[in-house]
Amino acid sequence: MRSEHRAKAPFGLKLAAGLGLLFLHLPILLIFLYAFTTEEKSYRFPPPGLTLEWLAVTWGRADVWAALTLSLKVASLATAIALVLGTLCAAAVSRSAFFGREVVSLLVILPIALPGIITGIALRSAFSMADIPFSFFTIVLGHATFCIVVVYNNAVARFRRLSGSLVEASMDLGADGFQTFRYVILPNIGTSLLAGGMLAFALSFDEVIVTTFTAGQQSTLPIWMLQELIRPRQRPVTNVVAMIVVLVTLLPILAAFFLTRDGDSIAGGGK
Amino acid sequence: MAAVAGLSAPSRTTGTTGRLSDLLWRHPRLLLGLLLGPPLAWLGVVYLGSLAVFLSQSIFAIDDFSGLITYEPTLATYRQLFSDANLDIIVRTLSMAAVVTLASIVVAFPIAYYAARYARGGWKALFYLGVMLPLWSSYLVKIYAWKLILAKEGIVTWAFERLHLGWLLDAWLALPVIGGNSLSVSYTGTFLVFVYVWLPFMILPIQAALERVPGSLVEASADLGADPRQTFRHVLLPLALPGIVAGSIFTFSLTLGDYIIPQIIGSSRLFIGQAVYAQQGTAGNIPLAAAFTVVPIVIMAVYLWAARRMGAFNAL
């Protein structure tokens, strides 16, 4: 597209960009090394030795399994709710121009634009005012609140590309509104919903701040991690859990990237 | 012709779904209401409502003797907010947010510029993923990684000693404000982790802004005799500014509200988020917590208004 003899990047720029990327990735790579260290009492570098022992120990830990299962359940349900609400919002905003359209966009973004602690405290006070005991469902509702925005962002971008004449053609050919949605709109926005859903899942799986305020006695995996971070008691197990969390969030992100990469390249743009 | 008519006619008029569909077609407002009803009921009523109720508590105050909230409008809580100790917290948080934002711009710009102008094909995808993966990796794991890195026995100390620069690290830690016993309990540590965690939020908008700068503009500037520094100063920077401002909205606002990073890596002195957390939890002073919360909201409202005037939202 641009001039054929593209100028080469100056060395300084290359160096700065490369170092920047290293800065972004080395810390995460270090997690993988520490998961195999034999050191139990400190964060010593270099590790005195490497072992697979802690993988087995972590595998046998009931509390880690409980936290992981809770996190997966919460993330699945929160994603499902966010998918429905986010798609509804996106459909309304992109299909018609109405008074207060901008307000709806702002409203959807607000739970993630405001610091998590504000959303957390507000929801907590709402739940206690309504006498709802803190439980699995309050965690899910809290997560769904801020997951709507990622589904919404992905869906809105795809709706914008979906030509209105396709819908009209479907109507002309005799499909009613539901058939049009099922056979024309859904296949067109499907991958963007999948991508949005995966990002919502990753977001929920990782969330700790809002969860702190909306959870009762249960601990999700991030809450478990946070307790370990504040008062480290079992460093080797935490190292392994950290590695697992990196792997679990990596897959949906990669999948979302490949689902949306041709077309609107905004998979994660809405975090 | 007849076959087509025969196919389409029945499905339009029979069945409840068909009638419902026709009804919605004739009344677009009804459809809009049905679409927006559920999300607005949750976000608009429950979420905004509880937000408003929480924030409005700041105009009440705690009774010093009973420890209960007195529901009479008063400015006492705001007076308490601007006491010296609390003002310290606000200034500390604001300075940290400002320094973190500036550092993020410096680190992010080369990455964004290279990705926008020089990276092509596979490299482009690699840069994109290279920013996306850290952005979406677990927030706590990222903080944990830095706890490993900055620990006294960790990799930073090791690297400095290997390079025979241990004295430099010690000298840095001996500095009055930014130093401390080890990096993980110093402002320097807090600063590094903030920059690391928010950096992708700065890279993406700058890259989006730079993508829109045509290469020919840079070439034209060179043809007209500008050296690279002048081109950067007078052509690239002004065009990238909306992206930089958009990124700074993220880094600034996220730093203002965070309470986990300074709690885990940093000195024991509080930031706004920690103060809110302490006031609503152990101290049980909801009005003061609400007043503390108003601070970042007001600052960000002003910031957003200024950013809008600079055209930052077109770069998102």
Automatic annotation (TrEMBL), chain A:
The keyword Transport applies. InterPro entries: MetI-like, MetI-like_sf. The keyword Electron transport does not apply. It is found in: Cell inner membrane; Cell membrane. Residues 68-256 form the ABC transmembrane type-1 domain. It is a multi-pass membrane protein. It holds the Pfam family BPD_transp_1. Gene3D superfamilies: MetI-like. GO terms for biological process: transmembrane transport. The chain crosses the membrane at residues 12-36, 64-91, 103-126, 132-152, 240-259. Keywords: Cell inner membrane, Cell membrane, Membrane, Transmembrane, Transmembrane helix, Transport. This is ABC transporter permease.
From TrEMBL, chain B:
The chain crosses the membrane at residues 30-55, 89-113, 125-145, 239-261, 282-306. InterPro entries: MetI-like, MetI-like_sf. GO terms for biological process: transmembrane transport. It comes from Methylobrevis albus. It is a multi-pass membrane protein. It comes from the Bacteria. Keywords: Cell membrane, Membrane, Transmembrane, Transmembrane helix, Transport. Residues 90-307 form the ABC transmembrane type-1 domain. PANTHER family: INNER MEMBRANE ABC TRANSPORTER PERMEASE PROTEIN YDCU-RELATED, INNER MEMBRANE ABC TRANSPORTER PERMEASE PROTEIN YDCU-RELATED-RELATED. This is ABC transporter permease. It is found in: Cell membrane. Its main location: membrane. SUPFAM superfamilies: MetI-like. GO terms for cellular component: plasma membrane. Belongs to the binding-protein-dependent transport system permease family. CysTW subfamily. Pfam families: BPD_transp_1 (PF00528).
